[in-house]
Amino acid sequence: MKVMCWIRNLKYQIALLVLLSLCSCSTALHLKPASHMIHESTRKQQQQIAPPSPVELPSRPTNQPIVGSFISKIDVNHLAIWLKNLTLFPDRYYQSQNGVRAAQWIENAIQSLPVPSDAKLTTKLVHHRDILQPSVIARYESKIPTTLKGIVITGSHFDTYAKNSPQGVGGPNPAADDCASGSAAVFEALRVLTTNGFIPGRPIEFHWYAGEEEGLYGSLDIANTYAAKGIEVLSYLNLDQSGYVKPGTRPEVGIYTDYTTSAATKFLSSIVSTYSGLPQVGSQVCGYACTDNASWFLAGYNTAMAFESQDGNSFPHNDEVHSDGSPLDTLNLINMTHVSAFAKITTGFVVELSLTNTSSKEK
Ligand SMILES: *[C@@H]1O[C@H](CO)[C@@H](O)[C@H](O)[C@H]1NC(C)=O
Ligand SMILES: *[C@@H]1O[C@H](CO)[C@@H](O)[C@H](O)[C@H]1NC(C)=O
Ligand SMILES: *[C@@H]1O[C@H](CO)[C@@H](O)[C@H](O)[C@H]1NC(C)=O
Ligand SMILES: *[C@@H]1O[C@H](CO)[C@@H](O)[C@H](O)[C@H]1NC(C)=O
Fold first, then answer.
1. 292: exposed, middle or buried (Cβ count in 10 Å: 0-12, 13-18, 19+)
2. What is the distance between the alpha carbons of residues 7 and 361, in angstroms, rounded to a whole number?
3. Most informative mutation of 241, 337, 340, 344 for ligand 3 (most atoms within 8 A of CB)
4. DSSP one-letter code for 37
5. Which Enzyme Commission numbers does its entry carry (predicted)?
6. Is residue 297 part of a domain?
7. Are 273 and 204 in contact (CB under 8 A)?
8. Chain segment 126-179, per-residue pLDDT in tens
9. Is 65 left (phi over 0), alpha (psi -120 to 50) or beta?
10. pLDDT tens for each residue of 183-225
11. Among 290, 179, 206, 305, which Cα is nearest to 254's?
12. Has residue 21 been placed in a domain?
């Protein structure tokens, strides 16, 4: 997510604006058709999508001893090495071979994780129409049958933006904060769970999206595919920038409330209070579909979004050195402890929803 993405994702914004001017949409329900319009405008058309019914979410955590035991295993050093490794690709642009290699590297990292014998970890690269870079999906599930329905998903994008080259080959960009940081927090959550023997109730999916910067390519494709297949998702948790603490400001978690559902946002808020050790600032808004949580929201799913700060304190620019002297998005500006707080939030969110015994509101 960037300050610039309004301009960058112009096609996407236009679709949204057209939609908003056609109807005065104020609820999630009314916004649903946006997924069709946006999808049709950004890619070739796909068939009409019937989003699954909303699912009831718990209002607060109920598995604190279990979650706490995994959160205590989150390892800042491991997370920092993984994050750094991801920034070593010269770029992770959606139309470059480096962007493809980064996806393969993430998949290999997942495949090298130890997995308990009662669980199964599978990965796949998801290829998208029109772009070179695939998204990466890891699915972690129990081998023991369960009556719990649906799945839980968390994700972040791992691609990078390249100035002046929306269709070009990309340019150097470590994109440490945007979004190696969110990618690393998602990976660390997966790592502590498989490495320390967590057996999911519901399956948990961990997603790393391609092509976010240029129009949410990966997440739109995947969210719309899941909706078209009627896959029941309790909630999606999006991470974007997760590692910058503006000098002189209080470290905190920003909770976004547009393009998210209130049940998921309320639940996320209680997860942040219980597990992150950081204060939170609610009611943050982007004003447009600026990151991957929007894809899941527009496809009709519960979504929530945790961000590195309140809006005004996030990383100033990330693609280049600007004329105002703002820095490139490099590793040295990342606060690894801050990123690990987002790994805690992600772990809490997915473990709680994997285990909670809630019944879905059937159609
Ligand atoms: C990071 O890269 C180094 C050097 O290639 C490698 O030895 C290490 O295993 C990698 N670590 C992780 C966590 O990916
Ligand atoms: C998603 O991200 C955007 C960008 O941060 C934010 O404004 C919005 O509130 C978040 N929620 C969703 C579901 O899009
Ligand atoms: C890094 O982040 C942690 C957790 O948010 C915070 O406690 C610490 O003060 C931050 N350090 C700096 C230098 O901002
Ligand atoms: C969930 O709750 C129902 C009703 O209380 C119960 O019958 C079922 O066994 C529970 N499922 C699990 C996996 O705990």
1. buried
2. 39
3. 337
4. H
5. 3.4.-.-
6. yes
7. no
8. 999 989 999 999 999 999 999 999 999 999 999 988 765 544 556 678 899 999
9. alpha
10. 999 999 999 999 999 999 999 999 999 988 777 888 999 999 9
11. 305
12. no
Q: Which residues contact 29 (CB under 8 A, 6 or more apart)?
A: none
pLDDT of residue 326: 62
| Pairing state between β 253-256 and 280-284 | parallel
Ligand nearest to the CA of 108: 1
pTM for the predicted model, two decimal places:
0.83
Q: Report phi then psi at 4, rounded to 5.
A: -90, -5
**Domain count along the chain:** 1
Domain limits for position 124: 38-355
* Euclidean distance between the first and the last CA atom of the chain, given in angstroms as a whole number: 34
CATH number for the domain that contains residue 276: 3.40.630.10
Report if residue 1 sits inside a domain.
no
Q: What is the mean pLDDT of the chain?
A: 80
Residue 29 lies in a domain: no
CA distance 294 to 301: 10
Q: Where are the alpha helices (DSSP H) in 278-335?
A: 293-298
What b/e sequence results for 266-275 when a residue is b if at least 16 CB atoms lie within 10 Å of its CB, and e otherwise? bbbbbbbebb
Which residues have C-beta atoms less than 6 Å from ligand 4? Answer: 146-148, 357
Q: Which amino acid is at 264?
A: A
For 20, residues 6+ apart whose C-beta sits below 8 A from its C-beta are none
Contact indicator for 190, 114 with CB cutoff of 8 Å: no
CA atoms within 13 A on the CB side of 353: 34
Q: What is the number of other CB atoms lying within 10 angstroms of the CB of residue 50?
A: 12
Q: Is the CB of 82 under 6 A from ligand 1?
A: yes
- The residue whose CA is least distant from atom 5 of ligand 4 is 357
Distance from C-alpha of 108 to C-alpha of 123, rounded to nearest angstrom? 9
- Residue range 311-322, pLDDT digits in tens: 788 887 655 555
Distance, in Å, from the CA atom of 266 to the CA atom of 243, rounded to the nearest integer, reads 23
Q: Give ∠ CA 323-328-332 in degrees, rounded to 5.
A: 140
Side-chain-side CA neighbours of 26 within 13 Å: the count stands at 1
Q: Can you give the pLDDT at residue 298?
A: 77
* H or E, element range at 271: helix 262-271
